[in-house]
Amino acid sequence: MSGARTPVRPTERGAAKQTVTISFAGFNRAWAAWIGDRLERRGHRVVYQRWDSPAEVPLVDLLRDLKLAKGRILIIVSEWYFQLGPRTHDEWNTALREVVAPEPARFAAVSVTTSQLPSAATVLGAVELNNMGAEEAERRVLDRLDLPAEPLPESAEGTRQGPRFPAAMPEVWGGVPRRNTRFTGREPLLNDAYHLLQNAEPGAGVVTLHGMSGVGKTQLAAEYVYRFGSEYDVVWWVNAEKRVTYRRRLAELAPQLGLSTGAEYGERLRAVRDSLRRGDPYGRWLLILDGADEPDQIWDLLPTGPGHVLITSRNPEWTEHNSKLLEVPVYERYESVAFIRRRAPRLTEPEADLLADALEDLPLLLDQTAGWLNDSDLSVREYIALLDGGIDQDVVKVSADFPLAFQTAWSILLNKLKDTVPESVDLLRLCTFFTPGFIPVRLLKEMPHDDLPEQIAGLLNDPLLWNRAVNQLRQYSVVRLESHEVTLDEAVSSGESLYLHRMVHQIVHKDMPDQDRKEYTDVVRRALAAADPRRPTDPDLWSGYAEIVPHLKYADVLESTDPAVQRLVFNCLRYMYFSGEYAAGIKLGERAMEAWRDLLGETHPRVWELTYHYTNLLRAVGDYGRTEAITRAAVDHLREERGAQDLEHLRAVGGLAADLRGLARYDEALEVGDWILAAYRELLGEQDSRTLNAQNNLGVSLRLLGRYEEALDIDRRTLEARRLLLRARHPWTLHSELSYATDLRLLGRYTEAESSQAKNVREHRLVMGPDNPQTLLAEHNLALCHYRSGGRAEAGELFARVLERGERVLGETHPWALIFAAGQSCFARENGDIDQARELSESVVARYEVMLTDGHPYIAGARANQALILRNVGERDHAHALLEQALAEMTEAVGENHPWTLGCAVNAAALRNLVGDTESAATLTRDTATRAIEALGRTHPLTLSTRIAHAADLRGLRERRQAEKVEQEALTDLEQTLGPQHVHTISARSRNRPFWDFEPSFT
């Protein structure tokens, strides 16, 4: 009977444990792993034998070698198993009859395919495992091996998680390219990647597949997913060529993980990263970052946790970011030959070898060339003669920038496409005006089709023609068709995306007729402009801009005079500013300034508008000297050309006031800000957003001048108005809440400040994301609120987190990163880590000295903080000298009544007392207390600190009665103001000398 088998049994069924050798094609590794796991749980020994079938070894010999394995041989039958080599069915029939038929009991088999198999395969007696659940599949495997199939006791199942049943997809699966059914070879690389990830320490499972374009890195990563994906609960594929698209795609994972988030982009991103880090709800996750060629742009967003990250990149610098590197070379020759023969079955092995040699074993070229050569009447030798001899002048040609073999091979392929479906060449060329990788062709379909060039309009308007063009490109592996999952709440229609390899993109983009280039560029620009969400301040729409921004360069949008395209550039710059993508925004702004000055002229209105957005980005990274020069020139020109009351001029003057704040010219900034606010109120009224922006900026100037009560009043009015005009979760409204809470804290109203800032931080995280710069600033203020209220544990954790993320996202020299470093240094100084405090403080001082102009108050304040550290480590004289210098510089910079100067004086008096200059210390604290009462009020925390310090100095002068009186009055005010159990009150009651920390403020 066909398929009958003679079992080999122990004396009693199941009485002894067996050795089973599982023979499987690499494509079916997941089945082998699952079957092996189920056998091992029952105590059987399993040997895994990946089946390889080198063409030069007779199949009969390979099967005889397999028979040398110990125990029963279980073959996982699939089309892959019988195709390797490649081998014909006739070869298999002969070998099976000669080797297996005489001893069928040595072999057993399970089938995981529905494809036609060699007729003699029936001798294996394979049992079917398709279309059933895991329990039935396991029962059939055990029965085929003549093993008992009773349920395992719980102790045998154990607590470890085994491989997932291969027919069951991971719980979460997204973005993974279709499996390449022609994938060939690469077994050592796949195994190396697997073992590097599996053996990595928790949080360190990162492997980068590195190699030149065209070697098949993406295909290798995709094959890894299909081979090992059953071992994960989550598999998520991300296009990582640009930071913005990476962030968007990662945020889309939130609903797939079942995370309870709102619609806000930032909330989703934060929730995903936190979920992956904790391994909750899934600890076995695999994230694939495809095309991550700029590690500096995205390494800080790499998730950590119990899962694994697989990266494809042309950049070996991933090793600097804790990734293991695997070099992906061109094919070995035997791999090339095997691949070509599977892609082009009509070719013989010697012909495949000739072709592989001519195309230098590059997988991408082999795939495309063998595909169309299989459909052609051209022989391999004739094709190679074309490669060697060049091509006629009247055919499509490829740039000479590429090696000769690439040039000619591609010219031949493009002409093949042109002759069969000419529209496919139009579509291919159109795609090269998007960035390489995933091409959002749905944007072409969704754009208005009026006034398009005839051949493109025909392509976009005729679904049948479109499908023919796409299918032709797919047939020859020029593009991949990718349908990405779109969440229900996204306000975009789902559509296909084509994947165009970087090398193909570059080759096709290089050479085309000038008229075609102009037409294609114009079409893509219009498609991008039509996709503009038009509200760059709305975090809900940032994912739309994240999709558009990477394509601006290849669409050459900066050479367009179309107002819609230019408006898109402005909106993208604003999106980058609000989302914190400063470096990318500055780069785009620089290119736009250069291009538009040439295109439009130095004084064109669009250039002045561009100047505003560009300087905002420069100002965000602290380049105030440069922005002041650029902005002042704009102000002068606009005032002369349009008049002082022109809105563009007013906007430019607002930028100038911001520059003055950054340069610590606070009085000038306040004067300019007052004038701007009055002008806006006259022109636009109280409730216009531009008026409120000017009002907000006036509050910043007042805060920097130490006029906290006035700042609080303005910020409260701005907050209330923004809540009415905008919405509670608008980024500007959130910033007003942050400013208001900061004012409360600086006024010593710590409980109110902490409550308000905690709510504000929650909103920031939800709306703007955990790594948005404004969110980090909000968290830093919350840390300060905790610290001032006595919550040292909460403050310490938050200070450290904000500093780590701030330096990662913004860079160590960003103004806000220095604010975070100063805060962490002060906290560390008072909480046991003096070494960290000193290292951070020295770094802040050094960077301020380089970045800021001489006499800037931030330099003086940072030196005052440094002096307190020197005092704590016993360097009294150095600390004393540095504090005296800081006091003098701060007085010169902001005046003797500014809170910063008063704080420096409190510290300087402490050092005078410490070095024995008690009388001078008492004089300084007396004068400082008088000025503090005048500037801040009698019960402000800084005033109370000066009064407590003065009492200490009076005791040093042995004026005990006066000291007692001053101290008692100050303690009474402290208890009434902050409460008897507040840390400052307790410290003062214990007669600990008060100190002051300089806090750099945002400008």
Short key terms for the protein model shown above:
1003 residues, alpha/beta, six-stranded parallel sheet, five-stranded parallel sheet, 45 helices
Q: How would you classify the helix and strand content by structural class?
A: alpha/beta
**Looking across the biggest beta sheet, what order are the strands in?**
6-8-9-10-7-11
Largest sheet: 6 strands, parallel
Large-scale geometry: globular
Helix percent reads 55-70%
Helix tally?
45
Q: How many β-strands, per DSSP?
A: 14
Radius of gyration: 35 Å
What portion of residues belong to β-strands? 5-15%
Distance between the termini: 88 Å
Write the SSE topology.
Elements (H helix, E strand, L loop, with lengths): L18 E6 L4 H12 L4 E6 L8 H8 L5 E6 L1 H5 L5 H12 L6 E5 L15 E2 L5 H11 L9 H4 L14 E3 L12 H12 L7 E5 L6 H12 L5 E6 L3 H9 L1 H4 L8 H14 L6 E6 L4 H4 L9 E6 L10 E4 L5 H11 L5 H10 L4 H12 L5 H10 L14 H17 L1 H10 L5 E3 L2 H5 L7 H8 L1 H13 L3 E5 L12 E5 L1 H9 L3 H17 L11 H7 L14 H17 L2 H19 L4 H16 L3 H19 L4 H16 L3 H19 L4 H16 L3 H18 L5 H16 L3 H19 L4 H17 L2 H19 L4 H16 L3 H18 L5 H16 L3 H19 L4 H16 L3 H19 L4 H16 L3 H18 L5 H7 L14
Helix pairs in contact: 2-4, 7-8, 9-11, 9-24, 11-34, 13-14, 13-15, 14-16, 15-17, 17-18, 18-21, 20-21, 23-25, 25-26, 25-27, 26-27, 27-28, 27-29, 28-29, 29-30, 29-31, 30-31, 31-32, 31-33, 32-33, 33-34, 33-35, 34-35, 35-36, 35-37, 36-37, 37-38, 38-39, 39-40, 39-41, 40-41, 41-42, 41-43, 42-43, 43-44
